[in-house]
Amino acid sequence: MVIADCTSSSDSGGKYFGIQIFACSLAHRIYTAALFQFQWLFNGNPIPGATNATYALGPLSRTNSGLYAVTITNAFGSVTSSNANVWVQVPQRLLSPQRQLDGRVQLYFSDPDGTLSADPGRFEVHHTLNPSGPTTVWTTNVGGVTTSNGRFLYVDQTSGAVSRRTYRIIER
User: Fold this and answer.
1) The pTM is what?
2) What does the alpha-carbon distance between residue 152 and residue 138 come to, in Å, rounded to a whole number?
3) I need a surface site. Which of 7, 65, 123, 157 has the fewest CB within 10 A?
4) Within 10 Å of residue 55's Cβ, how many Cβ atoms?
């Protein structure tokens, strides 16, 4: 969403969250939010009770991901804003890494509620040998995340000769 100015020579300079409806210079009247009716939409459907000029979300979860828009109505008609695509990212729950017989490390992870709500292609797995040093360097492993046994799975192909690594999972 963008913040649009609704201005004219006699306008109070008020800000309206959503889109610019028209230049508020009709009959040099001062338009305020009270003259507008708002209805916020989630994935094209009205959000019950979301009828203010602003709409706040929280606390957030993946179920809040989707398309948001607002329909603004006044005596002259109504207009619906373009969609704002909201993607909620959540920290991943990493299970205990498992070392395979050939030395590679398997990482299983999921959303905190145990679900797989994201596309595996959205994740990067990073590793470092020194996570607390002043010059920590993280190596990015792009790709290779799949699903297995109801969880995300990453197998570190380069971990065989390393006795210890620290991992982090980043959702893009």
Assistant:
1) 0.59
2) 21
3) 157
4) 19
